[in-house]
Design a protein that fits this description.
Structural class of chain B: mainly alpha
Largest interface: A-B, 26 and 26 residues
Strand order of the largest sheet of chain A: 2-1-3-4-5
CATH superfamily of chain A: SGNH hydrolase
Helix content of chain A: 40-55%
Oligomer: heterodimer
Shape of chain A: globular
Largest sheet of chain A: 5 strands, parallel
Order of helices and strands of chain A: HHEHEHEHHHHHEHHEEEH
Number of domains of chain B: 2
Number of helices of chain A: 12
Radius of gyration of chain A: 21 Å
Shape of chain B: globular
CATH topology of chain A: Rossmann fold
Number of domains of chain A: 1
Helix content of chain B: 55-70%
CATH architecture of chain A: 3-Layer(aba) Sandwich
Largest sheet of chain B: none
Number of strands of chain A: 7
Distance between the termini of chain A: 79 Å
Chain lengths: 316, 495
């Protein structure tokens, strides 16, 4: 038995040390999540417009274009329960907040991050925002287990950070993702709409639990905003014709009907559906359903104007 | 508690250390055995109760009734009395199984047939994890006592340990009392070789579950959720990946179970023997879920007459009668095997499909043509063997489509959709698909090279290629850690 125990320890020791060091190293490299967390911590009290959402919001809403101080808390594949988590985490410190912008995309109600192939992003909320969800699941508590990046790339990332200080931050200081620029755009960028729709179309019956969870989170944010006299703008961002011409009508109806219903029921909720907005041309897009930086500037200017028009207190 | 969970990674070493610590207590050997058995029962009940403690009563009841029936069968004064006790135990346990597993299905189907509402008739009870496994294990004991293959035991703790032994409690292998019970009645000693062999087998089981099954599942689930819009090539790839998913899932579980048992000085029976290297369907069934197949063979098929049924004296065409009875027995056994997996027409259809594949072989007397290992003594198979393996694999894959489908109509549409022009298009590739195919290649290479061993990482000569082996184990650990996603339950838990 002693020999058995000794050999197990000798066998496990090197791999435990290597993996432990890698975990520490990976967490040390700054990324969008840790950066936004620190930015929010330092500037949250000044924010008057606060936007959330997935990559659509991340690439489409540029806080620096607003005439009011704003911050973009969107992350790739972020679903409404994680919007609600971030909202709850900081809301008591956002004293000047006037507007919350919630991008509602084609897949917003039908996606559950836990069930998508980007489930691994949950670990970023756990590690960098101290999210209490999935507290006991190690897969959401570890970079080397949770990160889909191959191990050799993880080693490369740590090494680059240690040698040249290269970090993994893609957003600006107000949370807008600078990655969706014209130079990075692929040829025929607007043509992948059908594929993007297919990937994001769900069987509504099977997705009922996701729809319920997302609606619950959305109503939670709306109620909390009402208590603080904060207006909520539900926004469906513009997409390419290759995208909107292929959407499943029932899934799209779920988005529009739910948002219209909320706008009708709550006086502080507004719904702006820009899915087929003709002011946006192919040149404004990074791909079929993400805006390029110039498109984001255009959209944010429109939103700024819209907010200015609707900025009277909602009870007047 | 799942084998691929962090809880189990902590549970196993704790139980292991305390189990062998009991062996160091200064008491008589028989007392040590009793204490270790009691400890195994406690640990197993914690293991099972982690999922749902309410069903512990059910396991305890099944154990108690089978243990009691064993004593009553042996104590019966007449063979008729013994048979009565055995039958009573079978009816009781199969009744519980039927109530939990099949009642709702048959009640709903019955109501559907009569076009009456079923809501008032359905029980909607949760299916206790592993009920089919431990019920069959308990039944085998009372039948074996009746057949005088084993003496009934008066040691209730050893018997409870035999039924509830946690490594094989929820998904097998379905052990026989003749193999497992004597091990709980004898002193166990720790063996370094057995312990390390167990760890190697656990490692390979985790590889099969986490790296093969769970990564295949990502693709398979995505394709099945939208299969009507997918190309034929994508459907075919998903069908092949599901073939590996279910193998990795179930044989991975069995490897972890057998490996874990070895750490406690217990040897469980082999459950899989490289089924996808089979040259025909009969060989496949000798290598797939061996513990269930042999259970049905010994307790259902042979009592029915098996492949040598008695022909009634009044039958004019004895050979035709014999063939008809063989066909009946074969069909029956495959249908029962199908429905054992669950209350759904797809499982019944899957059993019937395999019966149709198996029947020609048994009627022509060719069902035992391949009993040796393929390409024995050679590195590569012959062209003929390779073609046979591919053909058998293809037939099995079609069967898995039926098995995986939500209902028969879906299985039909899925299969017919594969036979379309888009079969030659490039299949859908999602992130991780190429890596999954690479891992499957690794699985096939290792299992092929080690096909004459008890498991893929079994070592015959400990000193040979030591550093290479250690490096390979590290590689497996790294790959397992990298592929570990949110815990996915084993497919066979639902059965």
């Amino acid at each position: 038995m002693n020999r058995f125990a000794k050999h197990i320890v000798i066998f496990l020791l090197p791999i435990t040390c290597v993996l432990g060091l890698m975990e520490y190293g990976m967490r040390s490299v700054p990324n969008d999540y840790s950066y936004k967390h620190s930015r929010l911590d330092s500037s949250i009290s000044r924010i008057r417009i606060w936007s959330f959402g997935s990559s659509h919001g991340l690439a489409g809403i540029r806080p620096e274009v607003f005439s009011l101080p704003a911050f973009n808390s969107a992350h790739v594949s972020q679903t409404l329960p994680y919007d609600a988590f971030l909202f709850d985490k900081y809301i008591d410190r956002v004293d000047a907040l006037e507007w919350v912008i919630l991008p509602i995309s084609y897949f917003t109600f039908t996606d559950c991050l836990e069930e998508e192939y980007e489930w691994w992003r949950i670990k970023n909320y756990c590690l960098y925002y101290d999210c209490p969800l999935h507290r006991n699941d190690i897969h959401y508590r570890s970079e080397i287990i949770g990160n889909p990046m191959p191990l050799y790339q993880q080693v490369g990332r740590i090494t680059r950070y240690l040698i040249s200080g290269t970090d993994d931050i893609r957003c600006d200081s107000l949370g807008f993702d600078l990655h969706y620029c014209r130079e990075r755009r692929e040829p025929n960028w607007y043509m992948n709409g059908e594929e993007r729709v297919r990937v994001n179309t769900k069987d509504l019956t099977r997705a009922q639990h996701c729809i319920m969870a997302n609606k619950h989170s959305l109503e939670h944010i709306i109620d909390a905003c009402a208590a603080r006299n904060v207006k909520v703008l539900l926004l469906t961002l513009p997409v390419c014709s290759t995208f909107y011409s292929n959407v499943d009508s029932a899934q799209q109806a779920l988005v529009t009907e739910t948002c219209n219903d909320l706008a009708d029921r709550y006086s502080h909720v507004l719904y702006l559906d820009m899915l087929r907005d003709e002011r946006f041309t192919e040149e404004d897009f990074f791909d079929a359903d993400h805006l390029v930086t110039s498109g984001a500037n255009k959209l944010t200017r429109i939103l700024d104007e819209y907010i200015r028009l609707h900025s009277l207190p909602f009870n007047e | 508690m799942l084998f691929n969970s962090i809880e189990y990674m902590l549970f196993l070493p704790i139980v292991f250390i305390l189990y062998w610590a009991i062996d160091c207590i200064d008491v008589s050997e028989s007392r040590k055995v009793q204490l270790q058995n009691a400890y195994i029962v406690l640990a197993s009940y914690i293991f099972y109760g982690w999922w749902d403690w309410r069903f512990l009563l059910l396991i305890a009841f099944t154990s108690l009734s089978s243990w009691g029936s064993g004593l009553l069968i042996a104590g019966a004064r007449t063979p008729k009395g013994a048979k009565l006790w055995m039958t009573a135990n079978i009816v009781l346990n199969v009744g519980i199984l039927a109530l939990f597993k099949y009642y709702d299905f048959f009640a709903a189907e019955f109501c559907r047939m009569l076009s009456i509402p079923s809501d008032g008739l359905l029980l909607r009870v949760i299916l206790p994890v592993g009920i089919s496994f431990y019920t069959f294990q308990a039944l085998s004991y009372s039948i074996d006592v009746y057949r005088r293959r084993i003496e009934p035991t008066g040691d209730i703790i050893a018997f409870f340990a035999f039924i509830s032994f946690f490594p094989q409690l929820v998904a097998g292998p379905i052990e026989r009392a003749t193999n497992l019970l004597p091990q709980f009645q004898a002193r166990r000693t720790f063996s370094y070789e057995q312990g390390t062999d167990g760890l190697r087998q656990i490692l390979w089981g985790l590889f099969k579950k986490i790296v093969i099954a769970d990564t295949c599942a990502t693709y398979v689930d995505q394709v099945w959720s939208t299969y009507s819009t997918q190309s034929a090539s994508t459907l075919l790839l998903a069908a092949v990946l599901f073939t590996f998913q279910i193998y990795g899932d179930f044989s991975g579980y069995s490897d972890i179970a057998i490996g874990s048992a070895k750490l406690f000085g217990i040897r469980l029976m082999r459950n899989f023997n490289n089924p996808y290297f089979s040259r025909d369907i009969a060989e496949f069934w000798r290598r797939w879920h061996i513990s269930l197949t042999t259970w049905f063979r010994d307790y259902v098929y042979i009592p029915l007459g098996g492949s040598r049924p008695t022909v009634p004296a009044h039958c004019r065409h004895a050979n035709a009668c014999r063939q008809a009875r063989i066909a009946r027995n074969t069909f029956f056994i495959f249908l029962v095997s199908g429905i054992w997996h669950g209350a759904n027409w797809t499982f019944i259809a899957w059993g019937a499909y395999h019966a149709l594949l198996f029947l020609p072989l048994i009627l022509l007397g060719r069902n035992r043509k391949y009993t040796n290992q393929v390409a024995a003594g050679r590195i590569l198979p012959s062209w003929r063997e390779a073609a046979q393996i591919v053909l058998t694999f293809a037939l099995v894959t079609i069967g898995w489509i039926i098995f995986r489908a939500p209902d028969i109509a879906d299985a039909w549409v899925y299969t017919t959709q594969i036979c379309s022009a888009s079969l030659w298009s490039v299949p859908l590739i999602i992130p991780g698909t190429k890596r999954t195919l690479l891992y499957i290649g690794l699985l096939l290479i290792v299992e092929w090279l080690q096909r004459d061993r008890q498991h893929a990482l079994e070592v015959i000569e400990a000193g040979k290629n030591r550093w290479f082996r250690v490096a390979f184990y590290y590689l497996l650990i790294v790959v397992i850690i990298r592929c570990a996603g949110p815990e996915k339950a084993f497919i066979y838990f639902q059965f």
